[in-house]
Design goal:
By secondary structure, this protein is an alpha+beta fold. 26% of the residues lie in helices and 25% in strands.
Length: 194
């Protein structure tokens, strides 16, 4: 079937060898929860269909440093989503925290206060993958469990394009940071990263 060029995402192609495709049309490149969340989001916001792209990558290169070197990407575009948790009165509180790869999440102060917990820590790899239903190195804010807060640093919203996980290691998602800030449930936080 011939591809309609007008259906391609309205994004600049980044990366020297990445083939960007409309993410809503390629659920096979996304974790099941990510694909479902993306389709629901596209129904509520028509920009998702044309401004969210996905590209297949070598899963061995999913980590930020390897990815940016192998595909000639600017580190400024890459974003990391980590799961952070803490307890309050016996209740576990978990958030997906999204920051630019050139920064670090302020887990000990900003995240801890936002979760209203005494101590906030990164979830161990096994817990993060089991909890999210996503692969380590591909965890994304799109499709996290509904009881997880999604905290997005304002720098992601304001910094142009955002390259995020797809829920699996074998692809990445690219979209405007300003659009990611409109993902249902996202809380944009000033000073979440340093």
């Amino acid at each position: 079937m011939a591809e309609n060029p007008s259906a391609r995402p309205e994004l600049p192609a980044i990366g020297t060898s990445l083939d960007w495709l409309p993410a809503v049309d390629h659920p096979e490149l996304l974790a099941p929860s990510t694909a479902a969340a993306l389709l629901a989001w596209a129904e509520a916001d028509e920009r998702v269909a044309t401004q969210v792209a996905v590209a297949e990558i070598d899963p061995g290169l999913a980590d930020t440093a390897a990815l940016t070197a192998a595909y000639d990407l600017d580190l400024d575009v890459s974003c990391n989503c980590v799961l952070v948790g803490g307890r309050r009165a016996g209740e576990e509180r978990i958030a997906g925290v999204v920051v630019r790869a050139t920064t670090r999440a302020d887990v000990n102060n900003a995240v801890r206060r936002l979760l209203d917990v005494r101590k906030a820590t990164f979830l161990p790899v096994e817990r993060a993958t089991e909890n999210s239903g996503m692969e380590y190195g591909g965890i994304t804010p799109v499709g996290l469990p509904p009881d997880h807060r999604v905290l997005l640093d304002a720098g992601v919203r304001d910094g142009g394009l955002a390259l995020i996980g797809s829920g699996v290691r074998r692809s990445k998602v690219l979209l405007p940071g300003a659009l990611l800030a409109r993902l249902p449930g996202v809380e944009v936080v000033e000073g979440l990263a340093f």
